[in-house]
Known about the structure:
Chain A has about 500 residues and is mostly helical. In chain A, about 75% of the residues lie in helices and about 0% in strands. The longest helix of chain A has about 30 residues, at about 320-350. Chain B has about 625 residues and is mainly α. Chain B is built from 24 helices and four strands. Chains in contact: A-B, A-C, B-C.
Amino acid sequence: MVITPVHYIIAPLIAAFAIPLLTKIHKDAARVVPGIVLFYNVIVSFVLMKHIREHGMISEVLAGWQAPWGINLVVTPFTGYLASMVSILGFIIWLYGFRFKRTLKGGEIKFYEILQMMMIAGSIGIIITGDIFNLFVFIEIVGISAFSLTAFYRSRDGAEAGFKYLLIGGFASAFLLLGIIIIYTQTGSLNMAQIAERMPDVPQQMKIIALIFFLVALGIEAEMFPLNGWAPDAYSQAPTPTSATFAAVVSVAGVYALIRVVYTMFDVEGVNNYLMIMGFVSMLIAEIAAISQKNLKRMLAYSSMGQIGLVLIAFGIGSKLAVFGALFLMLNHGVIKSLLFMTGSYFIYNTEDKKIKSLNGIYKKLPFVSFLFGLGALALIGFPPFSGFWSKFYILMSAADEKYIFLIIGILLVTVIELTYYLRVVGRIFFAKEEGEPASHKPSVNAIIAMSSLALFIIVIGVYPDLIMPHIQSAAEALLDKSNYIQQILSLN
Amino acid sequence: MEIIAIILLILLVGSFLTYFVDSFNKKWTGTTAFLIVLITAGIFFTKIKSGYQFNFQLAGLDLQWGLTDYSYYFVYIILGLSVLALLYSIKYMEGKARLGYFYGSFILTVLGMLGVVISQDFVSLFFFWEIMTWASFLLVIYNAYYKIKTKGIKYMIFSAVGAYAMFTAIVFIHVHYDTLLISEAIAKGAFNFEQYIYIPIFLLLGFGIKAAVMPFHVWAPPAYAKSPMSFTTIFSGAMSKMGVFGIGLVFTSFYLSSNPENFFWVRTILGWMGGITAVMGTIYALIQTDAKKLLAYSSVAQLGYIIVGLSTGTQLGVMAALYLAVIHAVFKGALFMVAGAVEKQAGTTDMTQISGLIRKMPYTFVVALVSIIALAGVPPLGGFVGKWLLYEALITESNNYILVVVVFFSSTAAFMYSYRFLFGLFLGQEEKETEHVKEAPATMIIPMIILAIIATVAGAYPGLIFEPAAKAMQAIGFQDVTWQMSSLTNVWGDTTDLFLIAMLIFAVFIISFVFLTLKGLKKTRYVGTKDISTSGELPKEWENLTFQLDFFKPFERAAAPLYKMDMNKIWKDLGKNLEAFFGFFRKIYTGNGQTYALYIVIFLVVLLLFRDVLFS
Amino acid sequence: MTEFQILFEQHKDLITIAVYGTSIALIVIGLYAVLMKKHLIKIVIGLSIMDAGIHLLFVAIGYISGGTAPIFSRGNENAGARMVDPVPQALVLTAIVIGFAITALALSLIIRLYKHHHTANIDQLNSLKW
C-alpha cells in the first residue's frame, strides 16, 4: 500500500465511525484505536517526509479532479514539518492520556477519545490542505471537537468556557466564510495556489477587505489579541490532555492558517508590520495577565498566548532567519507547553483545586513530575541549555538583523515578566512548606514515558540543535518560496 | 573529543549523577560532588594550558572555546574556590534536605562559570552565563523558600535584566560588526563608546549587575546572606568575579584602544559607580546585626573597589583590581565559611544572640582573625597590597582625588564592621545558649585554613599573584607589566619590603601572644554575659546583654540620612506598582463572552476603517 | 419561457437588490442579536441568522441571471454557459451542515449551563475571568 497524504485524514475518519462499533466488542477499544490511528499518522509523516526529501513536494488530488478544480492535499517541506510535528505531539498526548479518567464510564471516554482524535486529525487537515474552503471545513471540525471537549467535564465551568469558545468560534467561521466569498468572487478559485497566482489582478480595496476578514477570523484561531478572550477559559476548563492539544496542535494549526493566507495567498504591504505589532501586543498583554493568575492552567494558557504572540512577531519580521526561528519556536512551544500541561495536571490532580498556592512543596509528593515541570519552565523562558533558548535566540537575532532595537528590548522585558511568574511557581513547588498527605495519584507508566520523551527532546535539542535544524530550515525555505509553490501545484497535475 | 568538551561533559553528567546519588544514599552526595569537581580541576590544570583553542560549529554558528592568560586567571579562582567550598560543604550540608538538588545545582553553577571564562565567542558566553544564572538561582532559593516571592525572584529578575542587556549588546555587535568572536569584536573596536554607544552600555549593565554595582546591587545582600554559606563562598567569591571578568575584558580593550581624553567621562562615571558602591556597601554593613548580612554588604563594598580599580584603565589600577579579585575571593570565601561554621555549630549568626565563641571554636577564630585583617587591608596580609596599589593608581594616574577620599573613607569605615564581626561572634563574654557549641569538623576547618594561609602568603609574597595577573594583563593588551615578588615600589621610588614587614609583625604578634597567654592562664576568669551585677541589681535571664546590642548606635544616628536613601525600597515600590498596573490590565478579560465578541467586532471595524493606513 | 421567468426578467434589478439587501440585513440583525441580546438562546439564534445571511450572500453571488440549475442532462450538453455557478451552492450546503452542528452543540451547552446556573443570562456567566 502506498502511503499518501490523504491517509492523514482517512484513517481518523474511519476510526471515528468504527470506534462506537468496536467498543461493543471490547470496552477498551475506544482507548486503543485512537492510539493506533495517531501512531499510523506518525508513520505517514515519516514516510512522507522521506519522500519529499527525495522527490520534492507532493500534491495529491482528491476524487480525481485536478488541482485548480478539485481539492488537493499538499505536503511541502513546510507543511510536512508542521504535520509531522502535530502528529508526533498528538501521539504523545494520546500516550499521556491513555489511562485518563479510567474511572469514567465507557460512553464518556468514547466521546473523549473520538473528539480528541478528530481534533488532531482536523489540525493536520488544516495544515496539509491546499484548498481554502477545505481549510474552512477542517477549522470547523477542529472547532466542534474543541468546543465539545472544553465542555467535557460536567462538574466544572466547562460549559461556560465551551459556550464562550463556541460563540467566538462562530464569529471566526462567519468571517472566514465572508473572506472566502470575497476571494471567490474576485479570483473565481478556491485553490490557494491559484488564488495566489491570480491575486495581482484583484482590485486593491477588495484584496484588503478580504485580507482583513481573514486576519480577524484566523486571528481568533491563532489567539491574537484582542480576539483571544476564549483562550484562557478554554485552556483552563478543558481536560488536561486537551489543553495540551490546544497548545501543541490547535494553535499551531491556527498560526499555520494565518501564515499561509498572509504569506502565500495575499501580496499586501503592511501586513508584516501588522503581524509584528499585534504579536507584540498579544505577547505583552498575555504575559501581564499571566503574572497574577491564581489558577495554574489559566496561567499556562496566558503563557501560551504570549508565546504565540512571539511566533507572530517572528513571522511579522519575515526574513528567512525569522521564519526559521518562528517555526522552531512553534515546535518548542508545542513540546514544552505540552510537558507543562501534563506535569501541571498531576499537580492539580493531587491538590484537588487548580490554585497555584496549593502547590506549595508538592516536590516531596511528586519529585519526578516536579523536576520535569521545573525543566519545562526553564526551557519555556528560554534558558540554555534547553531547546527554548535557540528559538528565542534566532528570533532575536533576526530582529536585530532588521535593526528593530525596541522590539528586542520589548521582547526581553516581556521575557522578564514571564520568568517572574514561572519561577515563582517553580519556587513554590520546590520549596514552600509541605501541606497535606502524600501523593495519592502517582503518574502512571505511560504518562511518565510521554513526559520523559518530551523532556529528553528539550535537553537533546538544547545541547545539540543541529539535529532538527535542517528540517526547519528547509521548511522555512519552502514557506518563503511562494512562486515555487504556485508553480508546482498548478503544473504537477 | 576535545578535552574541554570532556571536562564540561564531566560536570554536566556529574551534576545529574550527584542528583541521583542522593536518592540512593544521602551520605555520599557531598563526597561525590567534591570528587567530581576535584577531578575536573585536576584534568583542567594538567591538560589545558593557556593558549588552548577549540573551534567548532553548532546551530549554524562558528563557536570558539579557549583560554587566554586572562581567562586562566579566573579559572584559578573558580576551580580553586569551588573545590574548597565543596570540601567544606560535605559536613556543612550534612543532615539537610534536598542534597541532590543542592549539589546538582552547585556543579551546574561551576559548569556555567567555567563556561563563561572559556568562551571566546559571545553566543557561548551568553549560553553559559544563563546556565550560571539559573543554576545559582536554584541555590539562592534553597534556603529562602518562605521569601521566594521577593528575595529569590529579586535576584533572578536583576540577573535576567542584566543577561538580556548583555544579549542585546551581543546581537548588535553581530549586526554592526558582523562577528560573534570576542577577539574579533575587540579588534574591530566594538566596545568603543564613540561608535554605537549602546553596545558598551548594555554590556556594562550586564556585567555590572553580576558584579553588584550600584544601583543594581540590591539583589546581592539578601542573595548572599540567604544562600547556604558553602555556596555563598562561590557566589560572592567567584561568581561576582564574572562581572569583573567581563568589565575588565570590555573596558580595558576600549581604554587601550582609544584616546584617553575621549573616555574621561566613561572613566569618571564607572569610577564613581564603584566608589559609591564601596561606600554604601560599607555603611550598610556597619548596621547589620546578622554576621552573614554584614559579610554580604561587605562583599558589595569590596566589589566596588575592584570596579574603581578597573575604571582607571591604567596598568596599576587594573593590576590592583585583578589582585583584589583574587584576594577578595580568598578572604571573603574564608569569612563566609567562618559564618557558615558558626551557623552550623551555634545555630545562628545573629551577633546579638551569640558572643564569645573564641574558646569553643579556636581554629575558626584564627581563620576569622586572619581573614578580617586581610579584609581591612592591614599589613602584612593580602588585602593591604591590593589597597596600596589601588590608592597609588588613583592618586598618581587618575588625578581623581575626591574618589580617593571616598574610597579611603569606605576602607576606613570597613574597620568598624570588621571589628564588629570579630568581636560580635568570637570575643566578649559567653552566652549561656552557646555552652554546647563545639569546634567545627575537620573537613570544614581545612578549607578555611588553606584560604587563610593563602591570604597570609599573598601578603608577604604578592608576586605569587602578580605573576599570573601580569600575564593576564598582557593577554588583554597591556605591555610590559612590571612586578616584584615581595616588595612594592611606588612611582616616587620608595620600596616597601613586604616580607620583612610580615616577619616583623609576626614576631611581635607571636611574642605578645605567648606573653599574654602565659600571663592570662594564671589570672583569667571566664564569665558569662549574665555574670555581672550593676548597682546591686542582677540581670534577668531573658535580658539580652550581649555586647552587640546597639553596637554602633551613635554612628547610626549620625549617618541616619544616608540610610534613608534606600535603593531597595525604590526597586520594591517599582515592582509593586508595576504589578498593580498589570493587575489593572488583565481586567480586559472580563469573563463575559459577549464582551469578547464585541472586541472582535470592534477590532474588525477598526481594521476596516484604517485599512488604508495599515495595508497598501 | 414560463410566466415566472418573464416576471423575473422584468424586475431583475429589484430582485438583485432585494436578495443582497436581505442577506446584509440578516447579517446585521444577527450581529445585533449576538452583541446586544442577553439571553443565551437569543444569542444562538442571532448566530444562526448571521450564518443564514452569509449563506444567502454566497448563493446570490454565484447566481447568473436566467441561469439554469447546474446539472448536465441528456439533450442539454451545452448548457454550461447558462448554468449558475455550482461551487457556491456546494459550499453553502457544507456550511449549512456545519452551522447546524454548531447550533445543536450550542443549544446542548445552553441546557447544561441552565442546569448549573439556573439562568440563561450571559452577563451572569462570568465565573471565569481575568
